Amino acid sequence: MSHGAENAGADEVIERAIGLLSSLVATAAPAHLSAAHYLARLPRVEQLGRLVDASRVTHAAEAENRIASPVDSIGAAGYASAKHAVAQLTSVSEFEAARRIRVGGAVSDGVSLSGAPTSPRYPEIAKAVVEGRTGIEAADILVRELDAVARRVDPVALHAAEQSLVELASGSQTAPPLRVELVRDQVKAFILAIDPDGARPAEVRARRQRKVNLGRETEDGLIPVSGLLTCEVGATLKRLLDAHSRRVAFPDIDADDAAHVPPDDRTPEQRRHDVLADVLSAAVRVKDAPELAGSSPAITVTVTAEALESENGVGYIDGQATPVSVDTIERLIDSRGLQKVTLNAAGRILSLGSAQRCFTASQRRAIVARDGGCVIPGCTTPAGWCEVHHVIPWRNGGTTHTDNGVLLCWGHHERIDSGPWRLSMPDGVPHVRGPGHPEWTPTAPARTRRPLPRTG
Q: What are the DSSP calls for 273-287, one per residue?
C-alpha cells in the first residue's frame, strides 16, 4: 500500500473516531452510572484520551522536523516557529505546544541522514505513550529529566532507568501507576543514582533560574508576586511562614468568655501574607538597611497636611498609583516616621523639616524589653518582627514616648483601630481589653516583672 493510500486511510479513521467520540460525550453521562461502573470507566476514558494524546504529540513534533528540513513548509505558511504553528493550528498555549513538541520528538520514529527510519530516542516511554499507559504530563517529566543527564550517563544505565521509571509511571500487574507528583519524586531519586555528578548539575540549573517578579498593581492596589526560589530559600520561607501563621490561641480565657472570642477569620494565604509583612518590617530596621534622614523607611508616602487632618484624606506611596487611606498613613508613620516638606503654590520647596514622630532605636529597645513581643493576648509574633504603635495617636496629642508605645505585629497593627482589641497605658504599662478580657488587663509581663493585677 502506498503512503498516499495509508494517509487517506488514516484520515478516514480520524474522521470516524471524531464522530464516535462526539457520540460518546453526548450519550455517556457519568452521573447515571453506579459507583462501581463509574470507578471502572474513569481510567478507561483516561486511556482513550491518552491514545489521542499520543497522536497529538507525534503530529506536533513533525512541525519541528518540517521547519528544520531543506524545504521549510511551516515557515512558508507564515509561521515563525514550530511552536507558533502548533499553538495557532490547535488553539493551545505556546507552553502546551512546546511540551507536545518536546515529548513527541522523544517518542517518535526518526529518519537518518540516509533516509532510513530510526528508533525513538526513548523507546520505553514511546511504547507506553502509544499504548495509552502513560500520560503526556508524566512522559514530559521523564523526557526532560533523562535528557538532562543523557550526555553524562552510560547508555545502558540510562535505558535501565527509563524502563524502571516507565513501569512506575504506568503501573504493573503488582503495583498501580503513580500519580504525576510521585513520578516527579521518583525521577529525582533515579537521576541522582545514575548521574556521576550527583546533585550539583540540578543545583546549578536552579540557581540560573532563580527569580522574583513584582507585577503591576491591580485596581485595588494589590501587587502580584511570582518567581522561583532555590530549594533552600524556598524551604526556609515555607518553614518561617508555617511556623508563625498558626491560628492565634487564647489560653488564659475563662470558659464563660470563650464563646465571645472571635475566630481568626484570615485564610491561610492571608496569614502567610501577614507573617511576610512582619518579616519585611523587621528587615528594614536592620543595621545595614538603607537609611533616609536617620531612619529606615521601607517606603515613602506623600500626603498633604490637609489630607492628613481629614478622616477621608488619602496619600500616595512612591511608585504606586493606588491611593492609601489616612489610617494606613498613620500606621506607616508610627513605624517609619514623618518628615515635613513645605512647598509654595507653584510647587517650589521652601523648607525641609527633620524626621519626627518615629520611635528611636533606644526607645524601641526599651519597649522590646518591656513587652517582649506583640502585646495582643495569644499572639506569638516575636519582638524583632513587631512595629511600635502610638497608643494615643500623635495627631490627637499622643507623644513619641515609651509610655505611649507598644509592640504590635503587622496584622494587629493594621486592625487595632477597628477592633476588637483596645489599648491603654496606665502608669506606662500596656493594658488590653477585648475578647475574653472584659476588664483592662496588663499584657503578658516580661520575665523581669511579676504579674500585675487587673485594673478593672
A: HHHHHHHHHHHTTST
DSSP-assigned states of every residue in 406-435: EEE-HHHHHHTTTSS-EEE-GGG--EEEET
Task: Name the DSSP class of 398.
Answer: -
DSSP state of 77: T
Cell numbers placing 33 = 452510572
* pLDDT, tens digit, 9 for 90 and up, residues 364-400: 889 988 888 888 887 778 888 888 888 887 767 788 8
> What is the pTM assigned to this prediction?
0.50
C-alpha distances (whole Å) from 225 to each of 37, 228, 277 are 44, 10, 13
In the structure grid, which three cell numbers stand for residue 183, read together?
513520578
Q: How far is C-alpha 353 from the chain's CA centre?
A: 41
Q: pLDDT, tens digit, for every residue of 329-356?
A: 776 666 666 665 666 656 666 565 555 5
Q: How far apart are CA 273 and CA 266, in angstroms?
A: 10
Nearest by Cα to 356 from 374, 331, 338:
338
Contacts by 251-259, CB closer than 8 A, 24 or more apart: 251/378, 252/377, 252/436, 253/435, 253/436, 253/437, 254/436, 257/435, 257/436, 257/437, 257/438, 258/436
- Can you tell me the distance from the alpha carbon of 136 to that of 134, in angstroms, rounded to the nearest whole number? 7
Q: Which residues contact 417 (CB under 8 A, 6 or more apart)?
A: 327
How many helices (H) and strands (E) the chain has is answered by 17, 14
* pLDDT tens digits, 85-127: 999 999 999 999 999 999 999 988 876 666 677 888 899 999 9
Helix (H, G, I), strand (E, B) or coil at 291: coil
